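Re: beginner question about structure tokens

> Can someone show what the tokenized structure looks like for a real chain? I only ever see the sequence side.

Sure, here's an example I had lying around. Input first:
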Amino acid sequence: MALTKAGETLTDWTEVAAQGIVLSGEIVLSSNYSTGLAIELALNSTTPHDGTEATIQVSSSTTGEGDWHDLLSIILASGTAATEALGASEPAAETVIAVASTTGFVTNGALLFVEDNVIADSELVRQSDYTTDTSITILAGLENAHDTSDALWNVAVSRVFAIPPEWLRARVVINNDYDSGASTIVYRVKAAKITGV
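And the corresponding structure tokens:
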């Protein structure tokens, strides 16, 4: 018998200001046999950054704000980001992205953030190669089309966490005030769940 699985977006790509603290959307766990959360986060300024604190909270109540508990905290995306505007309009499924400079983009295997002018169309990609000051090759094709108003950033992370099944709700606190001189960031939280066996 196959398991019944589903995905859910708690918060789509959202920018958080330097020193900003925000809550993701929350997920109700009571109908799930198991749940995992994916936290994706990237820098979108060149300000040196000591990291953003992401705290997964779980609740023992189905409603209200009085019963949230910290499950775990992790510091994400420390560093100083390099950025590069796209050198040409790129269609969805493209794997070779034109750029004028590859400075800061010479680490094959790195996770990159493609910041779209429409923030919800942004995405994470994995670099697989580059041609100096010409292009960056990614491992799988772009999900969305992007143009020359969009940019690549080289400090990005994606982490997955299992939520213990006894809890009733979950959410994520994004604390971009962990570093007093912080960069702006963008983040997204998604969930995967088993709802039937």
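Each token stands for a local structural state, so reading them left to right follows the chain. The chain has two domains: 4-79+156-196, 83-153.
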